[in-house]
Design goal:
29% of the residues lie in helices and 21% in strands. By secondary structure, the protein is an alpha/beta fold. The protein has a single domain (13-279), classed as 3-Layer(aba) Sandwich (Rossmann fold), CATH 3.40.50.1580. The termini are far apart. Bound molecules: hypoxanthine.
């Protein structure tokens, strides 16, 4: 079996994840990690505000692809926070980078195989709710997977993993959602609509997402959430609004502006993340 997840011939991504988890344990000398945090656009800068940890190049581990999106680093950082081993992904691979859904969720599967029972997924997004200000964090209550992809595209996962027909009710942990809202009752909850990207949505697609009950649009998170939930981890989704979604304001969408807003919002995002991790 090839050690590349972009290959259509991979039938057991779970054993590749177990192999990568063992490499991570060897490198960090930590037999297990407890929490995985995927830092998306606007959140990766939060890592600079974290204590130093053990850094490892993502693509030095079996099955990992190096992220290519701006602001996404090819780095995993292992830190001990309040007696817990927390693993940060300082970047992620998106479906639009072309490696396929297995590569997108491989860091998540590796983290859960390494022992993580909690997976925190952060991202930058466009807001369909014009009353949610740019720069504001939003807790994910649910998602609509409009990517056309699944993290379980092949046969049934091997034992001990559950069947691929995984129920997604309460995909985003009610316990963790309540915990964040107890830290900051002002934070709204929303439904994230995951698009394939990399192009932004058309105004018609944004109107569709709104009609379907979506509040946010983005290009990540949904596959990772499904993969983590399938393996039994609790999932928390945190979005950062970097713009109002296409067609809902007179201001045209501009990718550079999205990245600039994400950077400026880093301190607030980092603070929310720090308080959330301390309260887990
Ligand atoms: N759409 C999709 N992804 C995004 C957006 C958006 O408007 N803003 C930041 N990431």
């Amino acid at each position: 079996m090839p050690d590349r997840l972009s290959s259509v011939h991979v039938t057991d991504p779970f054993s590749l994840a177990a192999k990568a988890a063992q490499q991570l344990a060897n490198f960090t000398k930590k037999p297990h990690h407890d929490v995985y945090v995927a830092l998306g656009s606007g959140w990766a800068a939060a890592a600079d505000l974290l204590p130093r940890g053990q850094d490892i190049a993502m693509d030095s581990l079996t099955g990992f692809a190096a992220p290519t999106a701006i602001g996404h680093r090819n780095t995993l950082r292992s830190l001990e926070l309040k007696g817990r081993n927390v693993l940060f992904g300082l970047g992620r691979v998106h479906l639009y980078e072309g490696h396929g859904p297995l590569a997108v969720v491989h860091p998540i599967r590796t983290a859960v195989a390494a022992g993580c029972r909690i997976v925190v997924l952060t991202n930058a997004c466009g807001s369909i709710r014009t009353d949610w200000p740019v720069g504001a964090p939003v807790v994910l209550a649910d998602h609509i997977n409009f990517t056309g992809a699944s993290p379980m595209p092949g046969g049934n996962p091997p034992p001990p993993w559950p069947s691929r027909f995984v129920p997604l009710t309460d995909l985003y942990s009610p316990r963790l959602r309540a915990l964040v809202r107890s830290l900051d009752p002002e934070i709204p909850e929303g439904v994230y609509v995951g698009f394939h990207g990399p192009e932004f949505e058309t105004p018609a697609e944004v109107r569709m997402a709104r009609a379907w009950g979506g509040d946010l649009v983005g290009m990540s998170t949904v596959l990772e959430a499904i993969a983590a939930h399938h393996m039994g981890a609790e999932v928390l989704g945190l979005s950062l609004v970097t713009n109002i979604a296409a067609g809902l304001t007179d201001t045209p969408l501009d990718a550079d502006h999205v990245i600039e807003v994400a950077g400026k919002s880093a301190p607030r995002a980092a603070d929310l993340l720090r308080r959330t991790l301390a309260a887990l």
